[in-house]
């Protein structure tokens, strides 16, 4: 009887030790290289090693991952930029960011070569196609720094046809996506201007979760952040094939060439590894940079004075040099 009890205790302990925590994680667009680290962590067992059973749920133009997070249908989501994190505070929504995977926002403005539209300063007064989200986001930074006007704005519908049809056209895009597609269509390398290179200080591709999750399951949050960071280092510095295979499975529109282009763009521009991450590892954040971002946006009237910036994020789970060698 005692042997049976001992065996039962060992068996229960083993089951408990191997029972992975289930996590539903929403990314803010369809699967592509910009999410390669998460797919790498899933494909290579990094999440499993940390005791996590992760389901990655794609986003897209018709998917509002923030609403799904608020409704409790997601445990974590990608918060696209620092603006959205401050909006949580402004609107008293009990969620915050726990890691900033992109030190540089990969948003770009794109123009045709040979048209004189090869610098941010040169675009003043010219029509620029941007989305509604961009209009209330980094457009305000460009408007303040380069004297742009809202009268320049033209609607952007995530369709390249208007740009391809007009040599004078200028549009928004993402570093690892539209420039590749435009070159494929035109045979020419377009002019690509990274908004971060103009001095835009916002973080991007942040991981967000609820204050309740942070308070009640900090170990779970830490394991998810650490595993995601390890996945990103593995994707950027190792063999990306496992992650790429999952990306193609999730999003068949992705070609090997486009995924490779996107990954190289992330690496070449230090999107994940520059800034705070160079010293403290991928996902790093600082209170000083959050404050600087808020001060800049407040001066543009986007946020009220006295906003509790510290409620937009926590440094509890980052700056631990995870994955740095």
Describe what this molecule looks like in 3D.
The chain has helices at 2-18, 36-43, 46-49, 65-70, 82-90, 132-135, 139-146, 161-165, 178-186, 211-216, 218-237, 241-250, 256-268, 277-280, 287-299, and strands spanning 21-26, 52-57, 76-81, 95-102, 107-111, 128-130, 153-155, 170-174, 191-194, 204-210. α2 (36-43) crosses α11 (218-237) and α2 (36-43) packs across α12. The relative contact order is 0.20. The protein contains 15 helices and ten strands. The protein has two domains: 2-104 and 202-312, D-Maltodextrin-Binding Protein, domain 2; 107-198, Osmoprotection protein (prox), domain 2 (D-Maltodextrin-Binding Protein, domain 2), CATH 3.40.190.120. It is of the alpha/beta class and 325 residues long. The radius of gyration is 21 Å and the shape is globular. The longest helix has 20 residues, at 218-237. The strands form three sheets. The chain has a five-stranded mixed β-sheet.
